[in-house]
Amino acid sequence: MNRRGARELVFHLLFSAEYTDKGGEDLLREITDERFASLQEEYALYGEFPPQSQEDYIRQAVTGVMKHKEELDEAIRKYAVGWNLSRITAVSRCLLRLSMYEMREMKIPVGASVNEALELAKKYDSDEAAAFINGILGSFVKEEVEPQA
Asked: Quick check: 106 and 60 in contact, CB under 8 A?
């Protein structure tokens, strides 16, 4: 599993949190139990456990997004002008939170984080959702992400 697969796995975990009371550590336990392997018929992503090289990213992204969820949602509200957070699809909310957290806290390069968010949006939502996410992330980057060398 490469970083793209790890990011998609993080997205799945964050998306599942939209419908449960689980915190970051509870979500992370899901990738070590039998349920993980049972999902490989639906998603090839679950055919292999994340390698050590991606475990740190997965742990930091899941726990960080969950810990800073309210703060990230405030940023989404700020840049999604005219949109109530509840009107934004769960897929888009999760992808926005993840990308914002990656860029601001994990110092993931802007281009990589935004591109991956858009690709996941196209896969799990729609081209329109990807354009919406791109607009919000563009505004977020201009205002809140330090320029990268």
From this structure: yes
